[in-house]
Specification:
single chain, 170 residues, alpha+beta, GMP Synthetase, Chain A, domain 3, Ribosomal Protein S8, Chain: A, domain 1, 2 domains, three-stranded mixed β-sheet, three-stranded antiparallel β-sheet, 6 strands, RNA binding, R3H_dom_sf
């Protein structure tokens, strides 16, 4: 093994350790939040695509946790930002942590991937650009990835919170 390989492996391990630490801090923060709100939920931590990922899952039907998702995921987005701030306070580093509650983001990701694939198919068949409704950064990222997987390009246009994806024909 060369010295460069060793340092790259060590750097990768350091990143994983840092992301695992972010997950631990986030889990502790969210456990406290669940206790305060008197809600039941299990916390699952993972590292996905170079970011810490924390999920709150219910061992029941998950209706209690829907309060933490809110309408169109608004409460979930706010909790994610608060959790990122808690991680930042502990580590001093900006976090890109993703939070999912009761499988909301996983379902949303699936729906958005399908939307991106349909928009790509429409742009291919019509030869016209397809404009989608305004979306959050997370939603746009999922759609961009689906369009890319379909072999087309897409761009984001507009200003937040009215920023939207445009799927471009080949």
């Amino acid at each position: 093994m060369t010295e460069g390989t060793t340092s790259a492996a060590a750097e990768g391990a350091d990143t994983l350790t840092r992301l695992e630490q972010e997950g631990e801090i986030a889990a502790d923060y969210l456990e406290g939040l669940l206790d305060i709100a008197d809600l039941d939920g299990d916390i699952d931590m993972d590292v996905e695509a170079d970011r810490a990922s924390v999920s709150i899952i219910s061992d029941t039907d998950g209706r209690d946790l829907q309060k933490l998702v809110g309408r169109d995921g608004e409460v979930l987005e706010a909790l994610q930002e608060l959790t990122r701030l808690a991680v930042h306070r502990e580590t001093g580093d900006r976090s890109r942590l993703m939070l999912d509650i009761a499988g909301y983001r996983a379902r949303k990701r699936s729906e958005l991937s399908e939307l991106g694939a349909k928009a790509a198919a429409e742009a291919k068949s019509s030869g016209e650009a397809v404009k989608l409704k305004p979306m959050t950064p997370f939603e746009r990222k999922v759609v961009h990835d689906a369009v890319k997987a379909a072999g087309l390009r897409s761009e984001s246009e507009g200003e937040e919170p009215q920023r939207f994806v445009v799927v471009l024909p080949a």
